[in-house]
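Example 3.2
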Amino acid sequence: MFCWRRKDTMQTAPPVLSDDAARQVTLAAHTQAVEHAIQTMHSHLHEVLTLEDLASVACLSPSYFTRVFHRLIGIPPGEFLLALRFQAARRLLLTTPLSVTDICFEVGYSSLGSFTSRFTHLVGLSPRLLRQRAHAFEPLAREPAERFPTTPSSMQRNNVLLGHISAPATFRGTIYVGLFTSPIPQGRPVRCTRLNASGWYLLNGMADGVYHLRAAAFPVAADLHSSLLPGEKMLLGNNANPLVIHHGQVLGDPDLVLHPPRLTDPPLVMGLPLL
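Structure, written as tokens:
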């Protein structure tokens, strides 16, 4: 006895993905989930957001969401949210007449003392000092860029970090390069320098340790707010993996390619260029 089946009702088995293709599909799904969570952070900064809330947006369990977020971004979701809050507080201090107390509540803090202490630690300046320096700030005039050797071969490498910053040919502005102990560029860097064009940079005198290399490029601007808060016009650079200095030798890639801000970039909290 034969069993006939209509052709249009026959089901075909799903294609079997290679291991590499399966990893790419998983990475894309995880990236989309994390981006949804970060978008929720941005739109609800003044509200209480729990880990469960963010995991629900990402359609993942809280523990799995934390692992995925940390693996893709480099920090836990709670730290990322905290940095976003203080980034928003810094913007409000520089663009509105709101009091420090009002800004404290605006970004979800209920204790002014805790807010001020944390702000000072992360930004590198107290809220009042940041505002004072902003009022006295004058955009930097372009100066001849510092020149380092065209190749690093002639430099002694012990406790010296020599790397190259690449920026679009059309960029005109100031590039800040710094080493941090945290993946988020916050507080005062361990070492930093300023360039007036893309090219070689030099940092030295660092102790052995693990460091995160970050760069922020501020374009030339005619007005104060654009100089301090360039937003989408700013360029950022960060190394995917931390640098390790061991017995004075640098392990890792010291070169950075600057790019426009991405949703998943660690928030820039420090008070550049007012430090």
